Batch of 4 targets.
Target 1
Amino acid sequence: MFKGYIIEELINERRVKKADVYRFADIQKATLDNIIKGTNIPNCNTLEKIADFFNVPIDIFFERDINIKDNTMYNGNVIKQLLLDKKVPNKELLRYIGTEANASLAQIVNGNPTVKRLEKVADFFGVSMDTFFEREKPFKQTGISKSDDTSYYIEKIELLEKIIKEKDERIKLLENVNQLLTKHT
């Protein structure tokens, strides 16, 4: 079961601002507050961004045994491969997650399933949630030691540079759209 309060614990433990988390995850402050309270379950993209922000595996938010992988984006094809490898009929998985519609399996594999549904799939196969994601870097299970300080800050700087680059690209796109709109009016 999803444990949103763990995000609050990470915020306090890492001494980061809640604003940095919700901005990085590209969600509203109220949404993050509701996720932390447990009144809102994040989708996979949001949860992945939060996990990336803290450099932790996704399973930490479920208090599962953490199987650290070198995994950054959702890959639903892993589910198809698990079904084939384990020779499990689609209907058996669908029944386990509480639906019978094949369209639901397509949405899970090809779309952006809810964390709640993806957790059921992970439980069904007995795998880590991180199995369904391809991340850019491995995760650290422990806090930062003195020897890790330099690499920690280098990672944070690289992450901030990536955010700035993406923001600049969005601004450029908006400026182009604005120019197009002003030409047509």
Target 2
Amino acid sequence: MFDLIYKITGVPFGYVLGWFYDLFHDYGIAILVVTIIVKLITIPFNIKSQKSMAKFTALKPKEEAIRRKIKDPQKQQEAIAQMYQEEGASPMSGCLPNIVPFILLIGYYGVMRQPLTYMWHVAKDKILEIGTVLKDAGIAALEKFDPAVNSSLMNYELQIAQEMTQHADKLTGIDLGSTSMSISSLIDKIDFNFLGMEFFNLAAVPNIKEFNFIWFLPFIAAITTLLSTLFTMKTSPSSADSQQNNCMMRGMMFGMPILTLWIGFTMPSAMSYYWILSNILGAIQSYIMPKLIRDKKSGVDQELVEQRRTQRNAIRQAGLKHTFAENQAALPAKKKNKK
């Protein structure tokens, strides 16, 4: 399953990231630009999700009326489903914006762990050959590397790429074959330091026991995840009166930062860096999105306002009719009293 997603999203992701890396000659800036592109791609899905959430909020009074009227659980659910179908509201329409970033994240994860494969398109057998040469040269970081066992390269390719820059003299005899560059040209390209700062190595895995600059990245990623979730909850038109929805959102609000912190200390710091950028851009997107929707005359905010106005008018008219009926009923009694 994940291998298929790697191939579908990892290959184009790798080409795009590699192209921006060649353009800016900086891994961190390339990730920043690609993250912005990813956010732009997901804007239409997020707009659709916002409209769907607002529509469900507007239909909440109808759903509650059905629940009061029909007590049988099965018939109740059937009536609610029919009402949503008639109104053109689909529960699945709000799920797609959450699925798309997840699929793109898997693609980014694949590129981050295997840059030689996806960014620089080095053949698998050549990467295994490079890894074997470095291991035979006594490189401690590749002591446990075994081409037969680690043929997937998922756990070693990034380490091999970093060791290539430190031991270029041991790789001069390797021919990359179909790749258009030589081994020396490839080694010259490899640089995972953000803005040339060695302490900001985006390929390094943060060690919780080793206090340095990248040690802060998982914590910053977790904090921005929490803040981004809170901001999104505040700006999204959701059914705030739904207890089930509130419990789910609270679980995500605290669960995601914890998960982000844990992953940040088990993966290269490029992952935490990507999350920080994604969270900041996501918060900006959440702030702008309602304004974009409100600016459209046919936008959901106008629809929501009209629906609520109609509901208020209906309630007001029902109240007036009830008051009129009471007054009419009271007239005969008043006439008798006068007599």
Target 3
Amino acid sequence: MASDALSEIKSKSYTIAWIDTFDISRLASLLAKRYGLRVLPWNRFLEADFLFCDTFDYKYEKYDGVRILITAENHPADLNVFDYCLTHEKKEDDRRLYFPYFRYRLYEDGGKSIASLLERPALGAEELAAQNRRFCAFVCRNGACKRRNRFVRHLIERNLVDCGGPFMNNIGHCVEDKVEFQRGYLFSVAYENESAPGYLTEKIMDAFLARSIPIYWGDPCVAEIFNPEAFVNAADFRSETELVEYLVRLSQDPERLLRMLNAPVFRNPRIAEEALQGVYAFFDRIFERGPGATRRTRWQRIKAVLQNYYGHGFFRTLRRISRRIRGKKVGRESALPNGAMPSKWEKK
């Protein structure tokens, strides 16, 4: 964006707020610095020029300005409800930006997190041996993923995992710092709640930040971003038993462990810088259009209201009824002689 256009946006001193979403304070501060934005507390979100929101609650329905979906979950971008979306979906246009949750971690602590992954010193054999790490760590709050649950049970049966979260806890207490807890282990379970292209959260990042080898499952495209030589991809194995046996063999091979622990984390070392440039280009267009330029059409707003009132199956039901009506009409007309028209007295 040209400097004069950026200066014009700054002069307007737009306000932003966020509700029903995870803490985006670091991203908000980067945007505020670039565009001269003022951040309002969540309880004043109705006064904001732009609203960041998630799909967990419906407070955003009260807000009629520019809504920007920003979510860490595997939720589709509903452009009937939101004007712009930052999601895991790998579809990018002027209203959608691919920005999965793990990318927010790139900008935490003033960039210290990403720097620690890009500039970490090599780990030596003696240092690794002296750390006396345990086998595997697992920290989770819920049992939403059956595949993850099944894998962790296999580890528990063989006494190979310490579970430090509320779910499946077997250490007697819940850990306060997930990354610090994982530092004492060779491996860390980093399974997503679901598997979907682009759905890549903080789980693999937390393991890398702890310098523990992630055992990852979720995004089938994960190797496009993270170096496949630096983690174990559970999708490459036919069963949990096969995966556990591989991990046991790997734990007994110090040379292979060191190669994985010292391998570059990212395929592209400029990932943070390039992702941020993409964010700026996306928001340049949003703030240049201004707070009154919502992208939801009148029909989309009506559709969103109906969906929220009747449920998301409302339009599917209408389409199903429409197809049945059209199908019956085509069936009746195809049974008539060529050129004949159905009589209004005909039985229906």
Target 4
Amino acid sequence: MGEQFAIVFDVAVVATVVCMFFAGWRMGFAKVILSMLAVAVAFFMAMMLSLPIAEAIYNNHIEKPLTQKTEQAVDSSLAALHLGNFSAAQFDKVLISGTPVGEIEPNYSGTTNAVFDLTDLNFSEVGLTEENRETLGLSEEFDLSSVNAKTADFTKEEIEKYGLGKLAFAQFAAVSLIQKGDLKDFNKYIEIVGSYFPEGRNYGNSDNITVSVVRKLVLNMLETNSTVKDTVMQNMIRPYCVIIIRTIVFAVIFTIVSAAIGIAANATKLLEKVPVIGKANSFVGGIAGACEGIVIIFIVCLATRLAVSLCDGNVLLFNQATIDSTFIFKRFYEADFLNFVSNT
């Protein structure tokens, strides 16, 4: 969604570096190097300090009260619900309408989502154990070769991350758990955490449990082999909250440190002590300005990652498909040290 506008990001990168180069050319090396030093030090300190501060804020002011609220409102049997061990399951052997999932090409129709008819699924070769069947409320006589899991809408990111076979199974598991009644109080969970978990905002006041929300829960439970409580708190709520808190803390630390360095430099007249290097002053200032522009681009990447995460990839430009369509911007966006901000 918005891939045709991906060039906007690349143009912005080039424009930022060029503008900062000429700004540095005019200002000269001395002024730019001090400005760049302030930005670099502020960026480094913000990266180092933002995570422990964000985790401390989450642990002390969000996790504890949220856990207490859910324990009071939600039945303990739901919180302790466990899907069992599906590590032996071979989801690549799932058949959709008789076709192996590995042979199915998703039809995104110019978007980042693909709709699948899952009314004819075959799990007979997946290798489900008796424990797996019992968890899903399936009797020994249940025919796994002909399963109806309704229709589902999967994103490109989900398909690439989990695989179509696991997504189809998670859809079926979600439908089965809802029908079985084990998740009858799950909407209470959603209501309580609705202000933290994006999907929860849409369904927090509903008396019906949506399959898409439970499917997300099932996928996380399959990946982590955790209970409902641990999955919701540690794998759905915690990453989302920490991303937001850390980004805010990063911005605050960066602003304070860079401003403090600037004030200290002016107070001590440090700029006057930096030697001017003659005719090369403007050129070296331009190089330093371009370097400062690159640091600014990384900061913009942090903000973009947060936007993609918060919007769940459903907003024009701010989605993974658009980012992947860029040529220059994605080189900065995919930098390893920025990985603390990612889709929940």
